């Protein structure tokens, strides 16, 4: 086999490997795939579409439950919305959330406070803990509501209880008769 042919074949195989592993090098984790993995609610697309997509597929409501997904509406500052899993109920107006891509780009936060600040106490508007200030943020966010997934999972206590999140795996590319045998 001549060197040019071998080089071309190597370049082709190498580029295939790079292409299949590129998703693992994604810039940062988004809230949607994380919420889907930890809650078991299998909805795809931007967070602001989850509430509508859940209609007829999942129970929805205005009361938090452990394991439910809190669905945030779009705002000017958050045009694609946000989703977060309720990991604990603290009181009738306070929950703890487990979510991604909130305080820190791509970061995961576990058991952070979210407080119902709606005048009617109906969970239509919340304030959420923000790492930058070490307390509840100053912004309020409108909610669409909560999406329930059958039997609620146990609260997330530590990293070991989270569902595994696979972003990508390396593909095996079979190559036969293309490379010279090792001597």
CATH architecture of the largest domain: Alpha-Beta Complex
Which class of the largest domain in CATH terms? Alpha Beta
The largest beta-sheet arranges its strands as 2-3-4-5-6-8
Order of helices and strands: HHHEEEEEEEE
Portion of residues in beta strands equals: 25-35%
Portion of residues within helices: 10-25%
The poorly predicted ranges are: 16-26, 151-155
| Average pLDDT score | 81
The coarse silhouette is globular
CATH topology heading of the largest domain: endopeptidase fold (from Nostoc punctiforme)
Query: How many DSSP-defined strands?
Result: 8
Radius of gyration: 22 Å
The CATH fourth-level homologous superfamily of the largest domain: endopeptidase domain like (from Nostoc punctiforme)
What number of structural domains do the residues give?
2
The biggest beta sheet is recorded as:
6 strands, antiparallel, barrel
In DSSP terms, counting alpha (H) and pi (I) runs of 4 or more, how many helices?
A: 3
């Amino acid at each position: 086999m001549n060197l040019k042919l071998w080089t071309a074949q190597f370049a082709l195989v190498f580029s295939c490997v790079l292409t299949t592993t590129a998703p693992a090098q994604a810039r940062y984790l988004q809230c949607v795939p994380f919420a889907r993995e930890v809650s078991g609610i299998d909805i795809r697309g931007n967070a602001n579409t989850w509430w509508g997509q859940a209609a007829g597929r999942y129970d929805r409501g205005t009361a938090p439950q452990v394991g439910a997904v809190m669905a945030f509406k779009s705002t000017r500052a958050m045009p694609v919305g946000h989703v977060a899993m309720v990991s604990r109920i603290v009181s009738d107006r306070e929950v703890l959330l487990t979510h991604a891509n909130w305080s820190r780009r791509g970061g995961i936060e576990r058991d952070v406070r979210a407080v119902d600040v709606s005048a009617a106490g109906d969970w239509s508007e919340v304030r959420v803990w923000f790492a930058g200030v070490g307390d509840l943020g100053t912004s309020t966010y409108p909610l669409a509501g909560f999406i329930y997934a059958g039997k609620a999972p146990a609260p997330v206590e530590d990293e070991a209880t989270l569902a595994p999140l696979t972003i990508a795996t390396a593909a095996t590319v079979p190559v036969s008769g293309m490379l010279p045998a090792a001597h």
